[in-house]
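Handout, section B. The chain below has 104 residues.
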Amino acid sequence: WALYTFQIRRDDQVTEILNHCQEQEVPAVFALTRRKLGRTMRRKTPASVVGIFNYDGAQDHFHDLMSKIRTARERYVTVLAASAPPPPSTSAPATTSPSAPVAP
């Protein structure tokens, strides 16, 4: 129960951070594991957050990364849409009026 509660709380915190970034038009990306994020930063320890405050001198890398992220998000949305169950039919089932003649 404690692990489940921790997971929900952590998910809420990540969602809140991502919402704040979106409101402020700050690009935000998150990794699913702390270990992978740490390795990406060439550290032996897991990392929870990496912030880039100034990308002067690395504009090309930054714009390339943002382009890749945009493409990955579009693919993700496409995969989600393809795997989603079809929406329920909106047409009402055909009904017959009690006074209408019924064919034998």
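Note. Helices lie at 2-23, 34-40, 59-83. Compare this with the example in section A.
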